[in-house]
Amino acid sequence: xxxxxxxxxxxxxxxxxxxxxxxxxxxxxxxQGPKIKEFEDKFAAYVDARYAVAVNNATAGLxxxxxxxxxxxxxxxxxxxxxxxxxxxxxxxxxxxxxxCDIDPETYLMDIRKLAEILEAHPAGTFAGIVIVDFAGYxxxxxxxxxxxxxxxxxIIEDACxxxxxxxxxxxGRRQRTGNSRFADCTVFxxxxxxxxxxxxxxxxxxxxxxxxDRLMLYRTHGITRDPAMLHATDEGGWYYEMxxxxxxxxxxxxxxxxxxSQLSRADAGIxxxxxxxxxxxxxxxxxxxxxxxARAEDILHAFHLYVIQVPDRRALYDFxxxxxxxxxxxxxxxxxxxxxxxxxxxxxxxxxxxDYYRHCLSLPMYPTLTDEEQQYVIDKIHEFYAR
Length: 388
Ligand SMILES: *Cc1c(COP(=O)(O)O)cnc(C)c1O
Description:
Order of helices and strands: HHEHEHEHEHEEEEEHEEHHEEHHHEH
CATH architecture of the largest domain: 3-Layer(aba) Sandwich
Low-confidence stretches: none
Shape: globular
Bound molecules: pyridoxal-5'-phosphate
């Protein structure tokens, strides 16, 4: 057993990060100050998006996106079951209904053929939109999803919590950065410490639409606006604001934004390090026929939030690694089998591909500060397990 167990993910905080936070603590604004817009602008530039809205976590961001896109009771939305609960819960917060669509057995993303089957099997107008997740950091080909969505009049929320810094290639050979929101309507990112960029709690919503941007901004702060162009009344005076919708307080603080700005400046280095770690796992596990390593493709950049393997005896390997100080994790138990969603009638056997994936998946340690020695230890322990 190691003195310090190796987690599956971990934040990386530098002296520069700490200095940036301290500087903000000494400034005039702890919240609603200039760091928010600076973080939004820099993040928008990073993912090549037109608009970005900082929020207090990605769950709030998903709720804002679903609200801005008009989800309400009676609206039905198609969601991938291979994700964290928040990707589907945001639809339920708005009173909408969730239909789960099975995943592709290679990429673990929503299977676009199954999505097309669901859409064709229902009358036009049954579904309002889809929520897709760039699972583990594997970016969607959003051109294909957009075409299908347009044929059926659907909007797209892309939950890219796993994929800041990823890109994919469109049919013209152009690289499209995940979250540029030229294909999805809204893209949502998380800055939880296990994700690429850590602010403690935090998130960002990107969009290409001015109309959606205005709605996201309105709902982020209680539905209140001071924007003269949006006010119903005229010439009330400089103090005047209006609450125009029932919104929320989903603001990020300046303290967190300062940390985010500092973290963002190292984001590319983090992605590069994740590629190296993935390559070393690919090579180090290649001789084990029991281990299925993640799908790779030439025309994408995988962001590798997670490095997920599939093995026949997952429970035994998980327990063995834990005993040896390697805190591998399971992402995720499929959402449709959670007690909450079972209440809608979902049951074992409904989505066979994701259920099979879940029986075999294991996420190995993957974060930029994982040392070569630690990674070699993980690889050696997996070999030891299969040599028994
Ligand atoms: C982490 C995560 C979320 C939630 O992020 P928070 O910032 O913790 O609210 C949502 N979706 C996915 C896919 C995630 O990984």
